Amino acid sequence: MEPEIKIEDYTYNLPDEKIARYPLESRDDSRILIFRDKNISESKFSNLAGLIPDDSIMVFNNTRVVPARLFFRKESGAHIEIFCLEPVFPVEYALSFASHNKCSWKCVIGNSKRWKGGKLLYDCADHEELRVYELSAERISADGDSSVIEFTWKGDASFSHIIELCGKVPIPPYLKRDTEESDIERYQTLYAKYRGSVAAPTAGLHFTDKVLEDIDKKGVTRCELSLHVGAGTFQPVKSEYISDHQMHSEPFSVPVDVIKMLASKKTGQKVIAVGTTSSRTLESLYYLGIHCLNGNPPGSVEQWEPYSCDCSIPVKDSLNALLGWMESHNIKNLEARTRIIIVPSYEFKIVDVLITNFHQPQSTLLLLIGAFIGEKWRDIYKYALESGFRFLSYGDSSILFREKNKQ
């Protein structure tokens, strides 16, 4: 049953000056709000290791942001922005980035009304090296707000090399500024590995080598998964009721060893999700296991699936079914997709603790916070606003411990 939630009930006043336009000089100098046992306190992110339970399992999203904004020009001189979302052919990210001479991507087109058809050439005015490749773009098809664009180029360079040369990092529009050189490094986590995201998993932006070292010394188990963050993740909900909102689909991959660790965790051992993207991926694993128990392959989790399925099956049973399917198909790395939307009334199956930034009003991410800690989200955001916390992608952090009656 889809929850009947009015999105206006999940809003707050976010003054423009509270939005962090730039990151702090040192990643771990950010403040961290602590919500535990219904109490609110704060510390520095550099002290994170002292805030988390011993023997926890901490899960990171190691996706890498790609410079997905490309600027082309018409013969008339008009500029067209092409924002790459995800590969269409080859459909696998690794194969698409390794492509030579041609590949196709699902894209959003800026200034699209001025592009009636035909090929566009990349604007190489400020980039001599790119001229030799003669990068071009052609619209193959259109579907709603997105289009399939075929990119072609000369020479023996891969698409990953091309896009690194000519693309711009897609920083969020609410920063109200152009991408700068510093964003190439700072709008990326230290542990980013696999290209595919068009928005950063921002909870991870605070981690430094020192913080990770302190976590390791505490005996916390660190593991990684990949969810490639789509452009829709941080968008405000435009419908009056959340039931009318269409969640986007995102690809993710999880190594079999991570699933084994989750399936065999000890009683009382906490799972800490670094970010909402890690949280959505972890929770999706439970429903993919349900698919396996029902005799179906674990392909994709649909938006409202958690609100209509039988969720009484123990987590270990579900994860073991998923592991059994992977073993029978000799799969070491689960590749799947999720459209899961986590809103109040959702019952968390895997995540106990969430590290996350402060999110936009009327966003699916704020609804996830409401599902995780209940109505206390209002007190948390009120405290953060009144105490001068910095908001959104380059802002400060929080660590939220799920209440016992929500476990």
Could you walk me through the main structural features you see in this protein, from its secondary elements to its overall organization?
By secondary structure, this protein is α/β, with parallel strands linked by helices. The protein folds into 2 domains: 7-65 and 188-406, QueA-like, CATH 3.40.1780.10; 69-167, no CATH class. 23% of the residues lie in helices and 25% in strands. It has 10 helices and 18 strands. The strands form 3 sheets. A 10-stranded mixed sheet has the order 2-1-18-17-14-3-12-13-16-15, covered by helices on one side. Strands 5-6-7-10-9-8 form a 6-stranded antiparallel beta barrel. The chain has a two-stranded parallel ribbon with strand order 4-11. β15 (300-301), α8 (315-328) and β16 (333-338) form a beta-alpha-beta unit. α6 (256-263) packs antiparallel against α8 and α7 crosses α8 (315-328). The two termini are 21 Å apart.
How does the SSE layout of this entry go?
Elements lengths: L30 E6 L2 E6 L12 E5 L1 E3 L3 E5 L5 E11 L3 H5 L4 E9 L8 E4 L5 H4 L4 E8 L2 E7 L6 H8 L14 H6 L7 E4 L11 H9 L3 E7 L22 E6 H8 L7 E4 L1 H18 L6 E2 L13 H14 L4 E6 L14 E5 L6 H10 L3 H10 L10 E5 L6
Parallel strand pairs: 1-18, 3-12, 3-14, 4-11, 14-17, 15-16
Antiparallel strand pairs: 1-2, 5-6, 5-8, 6-7, 7-10, 8-9, 9-10, 12-13, 13-16, 17-18
Helix pairs in contact: 6-8, 7-8
| Strand numbers in spatial order across the main sheet | 2-1-18-17-14-3-12-13-16-15
Q: Report the β-strand fraction as a percent range.
A: 25-35%
What structural class is derived from the secondary structure elements?
A: alpha/beta
On the 0-100 scale, what is the average pLDDT? 93
Q: What's the β-strand tally?
A: 18
Low-confidence stretches: none
Given this structure, which CATH class of the largest domain is correct?
Answer: Alpha Beta
